[in-house]
Amino acid sequence: xxxxxxxxxxxxxxxxxxxxxxxxxxxxxxxxxxxxxxxxxxxxxxxxxxxxxxxxxxxxxxxxxxxxxxxxxxxxxxxxxxxxxxxxxxxxxxxxxxxxxxxxxxxxxxxxxxxxxxxxxxxxxxxxxxxxxxxxxxxxxxxxxxxxxxxxxxxxxxxxxxxxxxxxxxxxxxxxxxxxxxxxxxxxxxxxxxxxxxxxxxxxxxxxxxxxxxxxxxxxxxxxxxxxxxxxxxxxxxxxxxxxxxxxxxx
Length: 251
Fold this sequence. Notes:
Blueprint: H1 20-44, H2 58-84, H3 89-113, H4 123-137, H5 144-157, H6 186-206, H7 208-212, H8 220-226, H9 229-250
Helix pairs in contact: 1-2, 1-8, 1-9, 2-4, 2-6, 3-4, 4-6, 5-6
């Protein structure tokens, strides 16, 4: 009888809950987001002639959709890493409160700058809400794929005027997009985060090397950026807007 082959050892991730490759992907999303917002700010201060329509022009609306999609996929995959590392609910809630607190600051800041279109439920608000059901749904594993597909499709099947107010539009079943500078409702975006979670779980089980493999040195700065997404998200717009206000005054 031939000897039973020993199981191949799993290559450990660089950290119990981090992946340099995933951080680099998130860093790329950060660079894209900062570039997008810089163009938005230039447009807002009248530096483009003729001005761009960031609210209807597909050149900008498609970019925004892709940037949010990339961030939520990374957030879902990061939850898979955290769960695989055994991080419990206390650690989860400590991080969650930081996201929720920053979401509140975004609302207050946007209320000052855009009083008629302030952000009541943007990407940080949506992420804070989505992280809870995503973590609870993690045991579904392969079932996350069809569940995510249903959540992605649901807003196209169901809309009702009840969900058109600021108190209810966070659900996402709106009949019209609200007048706001950022809008990332639970539906359909929770489906994207669940797909990121499912993809992360699949990679950890079937293609672990894709997460644990070495990162080219040229991508190291992106990985460094990707480890500080919340800090960069909160600081980049005040810095960009402040710099442009100074430039506008000198101009």
